[in-house]
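Armadillo-type fold (Pseudocohnilembus persalinus), 1002 aa
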Amino acid sequence: MEQISTENVKNKYIELCKSQNTKTREIANQFLIELERSPQAWSIAQDLIQNPQNQNKSIEQMFLPQIQFMGCQLIYKKTKLEFIQLDAQHVQQLKNFIFELLSGQNQYQLTQPCFKQLCAALGILGLFGINSTWKNMFSDIIAYMQQGSDQLYLGLEILESFANDIDVIILDQGSLSEIKKTVKQQQGQLLEIFNSLISMQDRPQLALKGLNCLTCFCKSGFKIQPLTQDNTVKNVALALFNHSQNEDFLLQVRDFFDEVFQNSKARNILMILSMGGEEKLEQKEQENIQIIIEMLKKMQEQFKQCMNNKNQNFIYCKTFADILSSFLVNFTHLLLENNGQTGIQLIQMLLETLQHKSLQIALISVDTWCDLKNKLKKYISQQQYSYLGEGYKQALQIGLSQARYRKVEDKEKFEKEQYDNGDDDCQYDDIKFNDFRSAVADLCLSSLNIFTNQNQSGGISYFEGLILQLLQTPKESPEYLLNFEVAIFGLKSVSDDDNYFDKKSEFMSNVFRYILSDQFPQDYFVVSTVLQFFYEFCLSIKHDLSILGDVLGYIQKNLEIPSNRSLASQALQSVIDVVESHNNIEAFKKLVHSLPNYLDSLDDELSIENITTSVFTFALKLESTEHKKEGFNTIFQIVEGKMIPFFLVLRENNQQQIEQQYKNILNILVSIFKGFDVYQQQQMELVADNLQEFLIRNIDFINLFYEKCGSLQISKFVQLLVGVIKRCRNKLPEKFTIFLDQSIKFFQQDPVKYYQYLQIIYNLFDQLKKKNNQAFNQWILQNYRQFNQCVIQAIKTTLDVDVIREWIKITKKATEYDGDLIHNLTDFEELMGVILDVLKNIINYELNRETLVFFLGYLKTPSIKTNQKFINLLPQILETIFYAFPELTKTLIHQITLVLNELGVQFKDNIQNIQQIIYNVVFNLKCYKDFIKQGDTQEYIQQYDQYRQLFVQALGQFMVVPHSNQKIKNTLADFHDLINRYISLSEAYNALQMKLQTQISV
């Protein structure tokens, strides 16, 4: 690498910016990275700032500010990373140099970004030195700020950087606490500065900068609390009105109050009181809260003048809504004080923000009502706070009314043909309109929670009345469609309230009956909302099975409409899933009767799966076993009616027709054999014979189908065959082994592409009981060794992560199936070779961990413990493990230790090798690497080596004497904890030695 010098740095920077050669830019970039680490960086940074032009004056003018910025940035980075290495003299020199650059003359013509980096560097010097090298930081900054307006602005920049960096610098907890303590002692000086700036009416930019800086001190780790101080809150409130037309200032006021509220202890009063504690605000805090309430009242007056025009003073109105929301959420207890007088005033403000024509502002109010519910419902009672229920009733009415607005505001009438099909997805006031409706639906649920919590039956009745009023809007009304849709949206939220379900099933049944009548609008969006309603509110059908037939009829009608099929199929599955058992034969027959038509007309995979699965589930839930079997046979006949013609197409190998038809058939078969829940699995036992007969009749079709199309849609065929295995288990017909042979053929063609087919073999080992399936046992004896070698070879060739994972899963499951048989069919050395290859060559921690855990489990097999090949390979295996895991986790240490403990008797002849391996582990611990990087003396490193050798010798002795698993596990874990805490090595060793002495008798 070229010598690091100022001229070379400038040239490399120009190359980085201008060169078209990628290699040249990479070299230049690496050079500049090395510059940051070099000791010359300090002096070079100063040269770059003072003399950005090179000796030949050849650098273009446009690059000079960039070179100066690089110098300023370099000073900031070096200060932040290497301050601890600077002595007091260097700190003073650096501070003087930066202040000279920040002087009013600006003789080097520095840009604003350069000043910002230099101010940030001074902020770091202040943080590190406020208790040592720069104890007069604040007074020095104040004196500097008094030199002029430019210095005033830069001084604020320094203070802002000082506040922001407290959360990112790396210091021990004790030093951080001391810094925060010092700042707290001097916060009076800071607040005096900020108060004077915020009060400037004729200097809005300085007032804004002062408020921003104050907010940073509130937000950062210093957590300054203006609520407990004089004047600050009052000055900010006055400044808000003085600069009410300055949008940036308004937004900064909002951020300031949000931080102030979150830092106040008063935000926890409600929780403390609920736990039987007592908490009172300081007098100053009470006074400042009253100032904020008066400020909100004054803002409310102007807000009222703008609330009917969404664009008038938008930022002002939004600031009011944001401050009010944060105030209420953090100081919720105010709603419950003074016999509700303060609460009623604040609730009225919140209701007014909900009425604003801008849905972005109204949404703030909706979210606030929902947040308040979470805090209030645990602490309120009907007797004391009934006015809260009234507030929620009004919020419900306004929220549902707001949810009826549309994008097209100039349309007075929404007739069916005028209905804007895109409204639900349109951007409205920077939020999606559908999001606002969802928020209002949450408000409905929050209101019901409050009403239920306070036993306010009147509130619940009010909610139901609003919904019925919307549902029963006359057809001739211009709001007919909108009202119906909003009502359904509001009702959807109640699906999450189980208590309401139990108590109000009659009301919901009436709603269902009204929806299912011919009175409701048949508009597309209304229908889609109704289908979603069925999907989410299906529990109501469970409470009233008398409406099941009508609901299914409505869904079936919409299955015939292409645009509604997807939602209708989801609603169908949801409704049928929730029904536990039924005897509605007529509804089932209607559904089955329409099944062929659905299968012919649908081309969407999810809809086919939903419908087919729903029909099967519905058949399973028929109360009579006879009806179940009859229903299944009917369904199978329909499916076979689709399969038989396609069987001929497969035999003729007509590729064009195969590609056109196979997806539909595949989706139908997957739906038949897909997983069912526990209840349905129990019911499946009653019709298992029907399913097995269907499979036996069609095994040749499925085999041929797999052979011809298995490469076209891998995941679906895996689903199908795994489903077949899980549904039939030991009742699988003998010909199913053809699946295995074909799966291996696919895998051999392309292991990476077809690795998923290994899941079929895994599931056979998982689902079949040992020796209960002769066909599978015979296949294992004849083919497992060859199959295993095939997969092992694929792993060695591809090192593909997915192939490795599947092989590990299969080997583990096969060992559980018949350990002795599998070990006899497995070449041990070849298996160990794969383990070592994976651990050495795959840079994937999780996969290496899976491989290691598998290996450790494999070692517990009885035949392994006496395997001399394993004993000979063990040092190499352990060394490879430690190579793959240079920083072992406690969990892996435990697992390795347990296995070594079980096999400890075998280590007597190999103890030197084992000790050397463990020695290498300790050598590679992160702690040791960090010591080396920090440049510790050779003597210290030798001392560390001695401690390591003592440790491994003791551990080696420990491994060959009688002991308990827990003791050795604890010893290793304790050592691992100690060595990684960055405590002194002597302390680590002494602690370890004491531990060993209490546990070992050598």
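The two ends are 56 Å apart (CA to CA). The first strand starts at residue 427 and ends at 428. ok done for today
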